[in-house]
Amino acid sequence: MRNGSSIASPCRLQPEELDDVMRRVVKEDFVKFDGTPLFPERAAFTRTYALSPPEAQLYERVTEHVRGELNRAETLEDETRASTVGFALIMLHRRLASSPEAIYRSLQRRRRRLEQRLKEAKQHPARLASGAAALDDEVLDSLEDDPEGETQDNVREILDQATAAQSIAELEAEIATSRRLEGEASELRARGEDTKWCELATVIEALVSGQAAIAANRSDAAFFGELERRDGESLRPKLIVFTEFRDTLEYLVSKIEERWPGRVIAIHGGITREKRLQAQQRFASEPRLQVLVATDAAGEGINLQCAHLMVNYDLPWNPNRIDQRFGRIHRIVQTRPCFLWNLVAEQTCEGRVYATLLVKIAEIQRALGGKVFDVLGKLQFDGKPLRELLLEAVRRGHDAAVEERLERTVTAALDLGRIRDLVEDRALVRQVIDAHEVQRLSAGVQRARATRLNPFATEAWFVHAFEQLGGKIHRRDVGVYELELVPAQLRQRARSFPGGAFVQRSYPRVTFRQEIVGRPGRRVELLHLGHPLVRAVADLVLEQHGSLLRVGSVLVDDRDETSQPRVVFGFRHSVVDGMKTQAGERRTISQRFLFVEIDSEGHARTAGRAPHLNARPLAEGEPGAAEILASPECSWILGAAARPTSSRAPGESTALEKTRSPMPRMRLPSNIWRRLLRIAVRKLRRCAALWRRGFAATSRIGNNGHAS
Predict the structure, then answer these.
(1) Sign of the dihedral defined by the CA atoms of residues 16, 19, 24, 26, in that order
(2) What local confidence, expressed as pLDDT, does residue 248 receive?
């Protein structure tokens, strides 16, 4: 609650209660087994700019109006109404700092809502004094962290008509002021004068053309100089621009599209999750798309590591969101250093507070590196969060004494010693793993890599299966393919997966080999077993041909010099927990496929991860499956046969049975089943132990997904 005590929900722990349970990881301390950093470097630049005289004049007049209305809101007896009016005015001021388009649209909507309110008040005067609908503290708290939430129609209507006026005369005066300010914003908008946009355009021009007029004394001059030296490369860097308001997003998209056609795409909370994923895929795969303009909806479950540059066009009042935004590009899979620009108007009240904050952050960054970004959300300014300081700056920033005190508060909060303590406190572990343990872990990683499914085998399977399902694919380079057409049935199957998955109609460049993805040049998308397209192909293949797995086959292992046959069974074993899926089934937390080999003596042993990949089918001229099974060496197999494997109706046959004799389904002796069961139980116990260790480690890791 804003006033009074707060009651924690019984189902949701408060952040301070989670502090000792879940710890975030300091990214810069992570290294690979060879000692190189796991995360790339990251750096931030602060670009302060001066408002033009017309911009400064509009800023002062809107700020003066907001201060006056805030003071009047404090006199209201209804605290809920006072909170709603105060929040609406602060959001109006934040839109003023965002863009001329945002403040113009806001003033226009507010003036129209107030006029409608005035019309109703003249018919029912008592309604004005009682106030309109208000928003409770929980909704206002959520909107502080997500200003785009105000674009919901019901929320926007309440905020736009929130007023402290208690009489018709006061409401008429407020409408007159809003109309005058709207006219000034309209003139500024028509003039096209926007200093903040010019700062962003400088960055975009450098990315698109590789050249930009950058002063040598700028902190980011070295970065732009490197872009010019690399002019002519086929791979152009990609940029993400974060704004807090939809009006500003649409304004920026229009400006960028007008100047650099076909270079921009947008993501915001007003589009469905599927369309967000489609926009993400397009931004990652289409080289011409270099700029993504996004609200914080792009920070929710979307990975944008295809870009390594970011601009905070609007700075959030919660500094923790700076790190959350940066985390969209600063990830483990990122291969390039990440750069961030923060745009700050130095003449504004809140801009001066933020400029002081960012200058101090830059100083600490030189001492601690990127670690400072990991503790931004924990900063307290004289016991208050940053938004309280910014609010005070808006309300009393015209007072020189207040401005000086706020600057001292920010400087004291960002003392180097205090930040070091915060970084240490936020670290996941403080112990350093010794060399022996590192070698042991490294050996385990190498074994896992040696026994994993070979990407060449996955590639060969996918190419064949994709063509069989109607897809058009051709090779562009060694290990690189172009998928000209992804069949509709594959796209539909991907959408049917839990949570929905997006698959494009075509992919210009894909590969199954990790080493190709990191090469300089054109971007190549990595296809792997977890990729929605590969999952869709596997799902359809199993649906159409899964029955063949129960038929069995005779394969030849050319490496085996003996003449003794072996029988290999495949088992799928799973570890489930007490949770239920949407389908009502127990949730699977670990699943493996186990191959077990049986010889003529009845001995059972594991057959490796994929023994069938080392074997081949029967060739022409070799004995058929029926002839082989009739040989004396295979008598023990036929003796265990109980019934034909086919469970289909009489007369039905599969393509496999037409080319080979059907394999019988086995009924194994009880002693062999007991051995198989013991092997499966050992595997399950090992999986359960690994899962318990993983769960214990996960419970100590912080809830910031991109740092996991």
Answers:
(1) positive
(2) 94
Taken in order 624, 625, 630, 635, the sign of the CA dihedral is positive
Distance between CA atoms of residues 341 and 299, nearest Å:
17
Indicate if the alpha-carbon torsion angle 442, 447, 449, 450 is positive or negative.
positive
What are the distances in angstroms from CA 668 to CA 603, 639, 674, 677, 681? 12, 10, 10, 12, 18
Give the separation between CA 277 and CA 285, rounded to whole angstroms: 12
Per DSSP (E only), the strands in 625-705 are 641-644, 664-666
* Element (DSSP H or E) covering residue 511: strand 507-511
**295 neighbors 245 (Cβ within 8 angstroms):** yes
As a whole number of angstroms, the distance between CA 509 and CA 488 comes to 19
In eight-state DSSP terms, residue 260 is S
CA-nearest of 603, 533, 607, 595 to 569 is 595
CA 349 to chain centre: 33
Low-confidence residues in the chain, pLDDT < 70: 1-29, 33-34, 127-161, 210-235, 297-301, 367-378, 397, 422-438, 448-453, 499, 518-522, 582-583, 638-677, 679-708
Residues 236 and 521: their CA atoms lie apart, in Å, by: 9
pLDDT computed for residue 273 by the predictor = 79
Q: 701 with 708: CB under 8 angstroms? A: yes
Query: 591 by DSSP, 3-state: which?
Result: strand
pLDDT at res. 466: 95
Indicate whether this model's pTM tops 0.85.
no
- Which pLDDT value is given to residue 687? 61
CA distance 513 to 454: 10
In this predicted structure, what is the pLDDT of residue 132?
55
How far is Cα 59 from Cα 185, in angstroms, rounded to an integer? Answer: 10
The β-bridge relationship of strands 338-345 and 586-598 is unpaired
Nearest to 295, CA basis, from 239, 249, 344, 247: 249
Handedness of CA 83, 84, 89, 95 (dihedral sign): positive
Tell me how far apart the alpha carbons of residues 302 and 263 are, in angstroms, rounded to a whole number: 20
**How crowded is the C-beta side of 672, counted as CA atoms within 13 Å?**
19
Q: Residue 246 CA to chain centroid, in angstroms?
A: 20
Rounded Cα–Cα distance for residues 703 and 708 (Å) = 8
Summarised one tens digit per residue, pLDDT across range 388-442 is 888 888 887 677 788 888 888 888 877 777 777 766 665 544 455 666 666 777 7
Q: What is the pLDDT of residue 518?
A: 65
Cβ partners under 8 Å of residue 336, min gap 6: 40, 308
pLDDT of residue 705: 36
Tokens of 706: 């991109």
| Per-residue pLDDT at 407 | 82
